[in-house]
């Protein structure tokens, strides 16, 4: 269950990171409220996940999910470059997340 909570926390991290763009430097009220709300939810869920997961693993997975999701949504929503090198390095982060999960769960 803690892994599911951690994944949801990572999804909220993506939401607040993308919200930063829409909030225009936290100057737009409605996007700012959404951004801050997503940040708080993400942190609370991370705090719950680390009650059962090692902090180093949980934090790395949380930031990895956020980094991958934000990078991919940057490509889709904000026309950021989708170069092959960029996609390869995003894939490396995904492999790291999966590897940490396998090692932490005793599957490897």
Structure report:
The structure is a single chain. The protein has 108 residues and is mainly alpha-helical. The chain has one domain (2-104). Helix content is 81%, strand content 0%. Helix 1 runs antiparallel to helix 2 and helix 1 packs parallel to helix 3 (55-78). The protein starts with a helix and ends with a helix. The model has no long low-confidence stretch (mean pLDDT 96).
Summarize the structure.
With 108 residues, the chain is mainly alpha-helical. It has one domain.
Keywords:
membrane; transmembrane; Quaternary ammonium compound efflux SMR transporter SugE; transmembrane transporter activity; 4 helices; 108 residues; transport; mainly alpha
Helix and strand layout, with pairings?
Elements: H1 2-22, H2 29-49, H3 55-78, H4 84-104
Helix pairs in contact: 1-2, 1-3, 3-4
Organism: Haloarcula nitratireducens
GO molecular function: transmembrane transporter activity
Keywords: Cell membrane, Membrane, Transmembrane, Transmembrane helix, Transport
Helices and strands, in N-to-C order?
Answer: HHHH
Indicate the mean pLDDT: 96
Taking the sheet with the most strands, its summary is: none
Structural class: mainly alpha
Unreliable runs: none
**Helical residue percent?**
over 70%
The percentage of residues in β strands lies in: under 5%
Shape descriptor reads flat
Distance between the termini: 19 Å
- What is the strand tally? 0
Give the oligomeric state of the chains in this entry, treating copies of one chain as homo and distinct chains as hetero.
Answer: single chain
Into how many domains do the coordinates divide?
Answer: 1
Count of individual helical segments: 4
Q: How much is the radius of gyration in Å?
A: 15 Å
Subcellular location: Cell membrane
Transmembrane segments: 33-50, 57-78, 84-103
Organism: Haloarcula nitratireducens
Main location: membrane
